[in-house]
Task: structure prediction
Amino acid sequence: MTATSHNNHAHNSSSVKDEVLRAAQRGRRAAVELAKITAQQKNNALHAIAQALITHADDICAANAKDYQREESNGMKESLLDRLKLTSERVGDIAEAVRTIATLTDPVGEVINGYRLPNGLHITLKRVPLGVVGMIYEARPNVTVDAACLALKAGNASLLRGGSAALESNMALVKVIRQALEENGLPSDCVQTLDEYGREGATEMMKARGYVDVVIPRGGAGLINSVVDNARVPVIETGIGNCHIYVDASADMEKALSIVLNAKTQRLGVCNAAETLLLDKHMDDKAAVQILSALMDAGVRIHGDPIVVALMQALGNKCGVAAVEKIVVAQEDDWAKEYLSADIAVRIVDGVDEAIEHIRKYSSGHTEAIVADSSQVISRFVSAMDSAAVAVNASTRFTDGGELGLGAEIGISTQKLHARGPMGLSALTTMTWIIEGDGHIRQ
Result:
């Protein structure tokens, strides 16, 4: 169904439930077919999808322009508009990411372990597809392609709910992908969108236990909490990123400045951007002021504790009002906030132990970074963290499947079961125990 027909037809509750279950059933049948094909056939299909995206880039961008104009009129935040926007260059980047997925080792059939028992039974533990994967995400058309193609490479069918803000974009992308699959002899129902059924469709997918094998939410706290609270299907939770950077007094301040600026300002609307900066009170005041001034020069508003505010107001009195305008007193909720904007919370802490205490209290479990030269301080920090990733003298922006050598990712899991951190292809599989005997019976 096209986006236009979505606008012309209303769905009552019973029909939405029925349509979602039918889509899931089609997905299950497609997944069975996928299990029979070779890695090379999947790779051929992925290359065909990449080429089709390039071929139809103008149509995709035209559909995206409708979404962008509508959401811009609706007052969407600039950082979120940036995530929504597609250009021919960005479509080219998405296509290149699909080609990268084709180069990755197929995890399906990988032998994780194999051994023979004293009784003669041969045991093999192999990777197998999850089956039907539901993805729920917000206003990020690139995720439509990433999710569909990663799921495909791992042998899964995907049901995609990409949100009303990207409706036209997602419809156009899925149409291109499905056509490429058909032309390469794969069932088009490997990839389906549920966007036409709105939030109700997403809710029905979350409840479709027995039809959908797993749901992966990717977005803000509201979306993730809604899925976790309402799903009857197993959920792999990709959490929000209240990422911290702690700068110790032992740090090389030139490195610290570079890391902080990169982590906060390279791209604002992403989950691995730094949202809280903790500065050791034993570091030189000039170094602290230099880091804070550089952030403000980059257009970042500082939500500071009283010490930070006083420090920067003194600077503002010397240098004019510009500095004071970009600093506000931090409120309690600032310490736990994922801004996804040109804002950062800053606190002065009494060494690494107070930094650890702060992070353990407010962290979302995504990524924490330390900038320090003291091996003792680094060891203490790393061992005390309870997050999916810890960066030592490096930017939080490296918590990303591509950057960590996974090639691509479906999301970043902040939970502890099944998958944690950037989720590559292997996270989209499960395991089967194969027990081979010769008439063996248990005594």
In short: The chain has 16 helices and 16 strands. Residues 1-10 have pLDDT under 50 and may be disordered. Residues 13-34 form the longest helix (22 residues). Residues 109 and 127 are 5 Å apart (CA to CA).
